[in-house]
Amino acid sequence: MDMKNCPHCNKELPKEAKFCLSCMGKLVEEVPLQNTPVRKSKRNVLLAGLFVVAVAAVALLVIFSVFIKEQSYPVDKSDTIISAWTMKMRPHGGIDTFNFARENGIVGFGWSLNGNPATVAEYRALRKQEGAYEGDTLLSNTLDDFENITNVDSIYTHLIWVVDPYGYYYICEVVGGYEYSRSAEHDAAGLVNFAECIFYRVGTADLVPTAVIETLSEGELVIHLQGRETTELTRLLWLVARTIQG
């Protein structure tokens, strides 16, 4: 049998002995605790992951806040100055009206006349000539707003919020002037007065400024959104949607 001597009392002991039976001295050196590898628990890993996500979320919020504060509204005469609106396209016209508008890239309204006006001013004159829709203040207000929106010489980029029959919200970027058509399709859709636009889908109500949801539930067909915060959020959502949808 292999033997060894105790380093404390020199007692002869078996080689595998861990302590001396004579002096009770320890024969094996203890490994310091700090040198012992510690295995990370799943809980620690999860907490670390959550911390990283939280830091990223805070960073995004900070970037968002800086972006909103640094926007210029309005500061110059460039086409980046935003004018935000809401429009209800034939609220009782059903799904076909919205689909027709989106497929043809237009926003507009009805109140058809027998002539062929080229401008809102000509439409007003034709309306007066025909004695059509007398006393209809809703039409008068809508014409005033639409004349502003379709002014091709405007320094503003006009963005119009619309909502489809399923509750999905879109931002329409107006890119054309006033147009009028009494074609069978436009008549059926109730969109004889219209302007060319680009539809950008934003999503459901939880992504939309509160003022947009509230004004789309009011009586007027076209409403100008006056608040700076709503205008800036509209700008930001438009830029994001435009980037995503190319």
Structural write-up:
The structure is a single chain. This protein has 246 residues and is an alpha+beta fold. It is built from seven helices and eight strands. Helices cover 38% and strands 21% of the residues. The chain starts with a strand and ends with a helix. The strands form two sheets. It has a six-stranded mixed sheet, with helices on both faces. A two-stranded antiparallel sheet has the order 1-2.
Features:
about 250 residues; alpha+beta; two-stranded antiparallel ribbon; 7 helices; about 40% helix
Summarize the structure.
The protein has 246 residues and is of the alpha+beta class. Helices cover 38% and strands 21% of the residues.
Secondary-structure topology with pairs:
Elements (H helix, E strand, L loop, with lengths): L2 E3 L6 E3 L27 H29 L10 E7 L7 H10 L1 E4 L10 H11 L6 H13 L6 E8 L5 E12 L3 H6 L3 E11 L6 H7 L5 E3 L3 H18 L1
Parallel strand pairs: 3-5
Antiparallel strand pairs: 1-2, 3-8, 4-7, 5-6, 6-7
Beginning-to-end CA distance, first to last residue: 83 Å
Sum up the overall morphology in one term. rod-shaped
Main sheet makeup? 6 strands, mixed
Report the order of strands and helices.
EEHEHEHHEEHEHEH
Number of helical regions: 7
Label the structural class: alpha+beta
Count the beta strands: 8
